[in-house]
Write a structure and sequence with these properties.
This protein is of the alpha/beta class. It is built from 13 helices and ten strands. It folds into three domains: 133 residues, 3-Layer(aba) Sandwich (Rossmann fold); 107 residues, Beta-Lactamase; 61 residues, Arc Repressor Mutant, subunit A, CATH 1.10.10.10. It is globular.
Length: 341
């Protein structure tokens, strides 16, 4: 099924009604203070303690803006920008870099003009909020990137995307059916609404119609659907009301709940040795993806830090990755880990 034309919306990610801001920084106190400030001005806040976690949450949550401290661990500001640019569905996300006055010029010299806004610390709260609002209000950039970002999003393997109009699901992307076992080599999958467990259908359609008639602006519900194997799994549906092709529609995404991941354990292997990684290398890979340092990994696995570095080098070689951020992208794209890690 071909994807629908791109919507001319200010934010085609549409996953939540409030703008989502990802804060990336090592300092827990500064993260908490910035989070409190930004949340108090009607933004949704996501926090990452280091750059690798920031990359993973960018893939998982698709924030509308990223606020990154250049002293963040794992990657410097330029490397973080380059990594985000490799993610098609995230390449248009505005970035704000917080740096020292001495580091601002170095960062500006190293980044292309379109990469992001650099702010010297300390910065006044009102000034930070002003820059955030300005970066979110970029119609020219979004107009140019809107179609690319929307098409990238609806084909993103992390999310099953749907469009609901006139009492039925008029569009469901490949990722949604892939989640339910219908891969590219499968025969034409059934309509998604027919995969919803019968005693859940009334609740789902009732909530969708409430959205359409204006009773609520967004929804989040759990429902049971049938996997191709016949197993019933639990998923979560998120949606917001938007105008699509001149018609009020509910557009959103569907993800597997934690319960569903456990139910599907026999269906999806945690370790796929077709990638040539040993069980121990997979243990190290998962911890790298969680943002753990070599020292932290050595303590968790009861091995020396030098052994961890050896495993890290082997993983880089086997996966043809250049750094830890690329390992995270590789692991998620090849389903070696889940976005919930």
């Amino acid at each position: 099924m071909d994807p629908p034309p791109a919507m001319r919306e200010a934010d085609p990610s549409y996953i939540f009604s409030m703008k989502k801001i990802l804060i990336v920084g090592n300092d827990s106190v500064l993260r908490a203070n910035r989070s409190e400030l930004i949340r108090s001005h009607d933004f949704e806040v996501i926090k990452a303690k280091d750059a690798l976690t920031g990359v993973r949450l960018t893939l998982q949550m698709k924030p509308d803006l990223i606020l990154c401290d250049t002293s963040v661990s794992n990657l410097n500001g330029y490397a973080f920008y380059q990594t985000i640019q490799q993610i098609k569905s995230a390449s248009a996300i505005p970035l704000i870099f917080l740096t020292t006055s001495s580091g601002e010029k170095r960062l500006r010299d190293g980044l292309p003009p379109e990469a992001g806004t650099c702010i010297s610390q300390p910065v006044h709260s009102e000034e930070l909020l002003k820059v955030i609002r300005k970066r979110l209000d970029l119609p020219e950039r979004i107009f140019q990137k809107g179609e690319e970002r929307f098409l990238a999003l609806i084909n993103d393997t992390a999310f099953g995307v749907f469009i609901y109009q006139y009492g039925k699901f008029i569009y469901s992307n490949k990722a949604l059916f892939g989640m339910l076992g219908y891969n590219n080599d499968s025969a034409s999958p059934p309509d998604f609404q027919n995969l919803i467990v019968e005693n859940h259908r009334h609740k789902v359609f009732d909530e969708l119609e409430k959205c359409l008639n204006g009773s609520k602006s967004s929804l989040r519900i759990k429902l049971r659907v049938e996997h191709k194997t016949g197993i019933k799994i639990t998923v979560e549906l998120f949606g917001s009301i938007l105008t699509y092709q001149g018609v009020s529609s509910v557009i959103g995404h569907i993800i597997r709940s934690e319960k569903a991941l456990k139910e599907q354990l026999p269906l999806i292997c945690k370790v796929k040795n077709s990638h040539g990684l040993t069980n121990r290398e997979m243990d190290v890979l998962r911890l790298i993806c969680s943002g753990s340092t070599s020292l932290e990994i050595s303590k968790k696995l009861f091995i020396s830090e030098r052994t961890v570095e050896t495993h890290r080098s082997v993983i880089l070689s086997k996966t043809h990755c250049k750094n830890a951020a690329e390992i995270v992208l590789y692991a998620i794209r090849n389903k070696l880990i889940t976005n919930d890690l």
